């Protein structure tokens, strides 16, 4: 475990950007569980910010800090404009997505296919850094398609680092751009953690965090001995209570007397505030906490109550009481 007096970097533990999952309601839940973990938004495209509803995409609760905005795009000028927006809205970091393999992203010529154009990525980073004072980071894969050429990812990082990027979050799988869905791209290309460890040895001056398949304290500690940080994706979403030990396990913080019941009550209070301020229905928020009681007796019935669309007409606090009193 990290000694309490030992300094740590903001990227030591983070929750990955996940489309349709890590919206501001999900991030609020995660912040209740961990005060230190860095939280990322879903990927927001430059087009959505240039031509869409900016407040809808960028609004977040101040409690979410530290929070990073992940951008999808490939035009330096557009990304610079969006980086300025991120700083104006108070984000702590701007991250460029160079890892998403979806066909929609490929049609927009950004995401993972940007790894084939490291100089363009460098130009994007340079433009974003010139437009905002917050850190500009890059999230990427270790390769494209089935080629396992270490020199490819090494040279990508080297080129982008020359533009001033000092932090790289590396998903330790290749992105197969043809033939696999985004879900399959998170599961089928083999994890190669050793590549990321080698990158850290080759670039000791950079901050390198690893992403891909982590689901236990032991697995995280193993990587923290080799690289600067670990980013957790699906396990953090499906088993959010794991985050409750992160501050103690990985940041050396004092243990907290936190209970699932208190987190649930805090989320209900948040639902009530969101309803009053923005007209958000509690049902849109509750979906993110359905894994909170995973592994406990009665968890299945608890999830059923919170996900029962027939109860949508009830206030959130009444639903909470039903979830706690139904047999199971």
UniProtKB/TrEMBL annotation:
Enzyme class: oxidoreductase
Site (Interacts with tRNA): 97, 183, 186, 300, 303
Short name of one Pfam family: Dus
InterPro entries: Aldolase_TIM, DUS-like_FMN-bd, DUS_fam, DusA, tRNA_hU_synthase_CS
GO molecular function, one term: tRNA binding
Catalytic machinery residues: 100 (proton donor)
Domain DUS-like FMN-binding residue range list: 15-310
SUPFAM superfamilies: FMN-linked oxidoreductases
Keywords assigned: Flavoprotein, FMN, NADP, Nucleotide-binding, Oxidoreductase, RNA-binding, tRNA processing, tRNA-binding
Highest taxon listed in the record's lineage: Bacteria
Cofactor(s) of this protein: FMN
Function: Catalyzes the synthesis of 5,6-dihydrouridine (D), a modified base found in the D-loop of most tRNAs, via the reduction of the C5-C6 double bond in target uridines. Specifically modifies U20 and U20a in tRNAs.
Protein name: tRNA-dihydrouridine(20/20a) synthase
Gene it is expressed from: dusA
């Amino acid at each position: 475990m990290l000694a309490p007096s030992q300094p740590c970097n903001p990227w030591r533990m983070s929750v990955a950007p996940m489309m349709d999952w890590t919206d501001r309601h999900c991030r609020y839940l995660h912040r209740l569980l961990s005060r230190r973990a860095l939280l990322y938004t879903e990927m927001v495209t430059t087009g959505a910010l240039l031509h869409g509803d900016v407040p809808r995409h960028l609004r977040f609760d101040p409690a979410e800090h530290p929070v990073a905005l992940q951008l999808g795009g490939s035009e330096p000028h557009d990304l610079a404009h969006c980086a300025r927006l991120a700083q104006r809205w108070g984000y702590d970091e701007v991250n460029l997505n160079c890892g998403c393999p979806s066909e929609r992203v490929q049609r927009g010529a950004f995401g993972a296919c940007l790894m084939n154009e490291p100089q363009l990525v460098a130009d994007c980073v340079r433009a974003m850094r010139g437009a905002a004072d917050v850190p500009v980071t890059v999230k990427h894969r270790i390769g494209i398609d089935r080629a396992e050429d270490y020199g490819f990812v090494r040279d990508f990082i080297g080129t982008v680092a020359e533009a001033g990027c000092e932090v790289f979050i590396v998903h330790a799988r290749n992105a197969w751009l043809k033939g696999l869905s985004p879900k399959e791209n998170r599961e089928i290309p083999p994890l190669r953690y050793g590549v990321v460890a080698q990158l850290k040895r080759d670039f000791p001056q950079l901050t390198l965090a690893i992403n891909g398949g982590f689901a236990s304290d032991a697995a995280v500690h193993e990587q923290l001995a080799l690289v600067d940080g670990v980013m957790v994706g699906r396990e953090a979403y499906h088993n959010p209570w794991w985050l409750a030990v992160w501050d103690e396990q990985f940041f050396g913080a004092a243990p907290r007397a936190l209970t699932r019941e208190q987190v649930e009550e805090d989320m209900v209070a948040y639902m009530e505030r969101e309803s009053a301020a923005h007209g958000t229905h509690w049902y849109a928020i509750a979906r993110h906490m359905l894994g909170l009681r995973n592994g406990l007796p009665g968890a299945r019935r608890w999830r059923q109550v919170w996900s029962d669309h027939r109860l949508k007409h009830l206030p959130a606090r009444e639903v909470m009481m039903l979830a706690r009193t139904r047999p199971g």
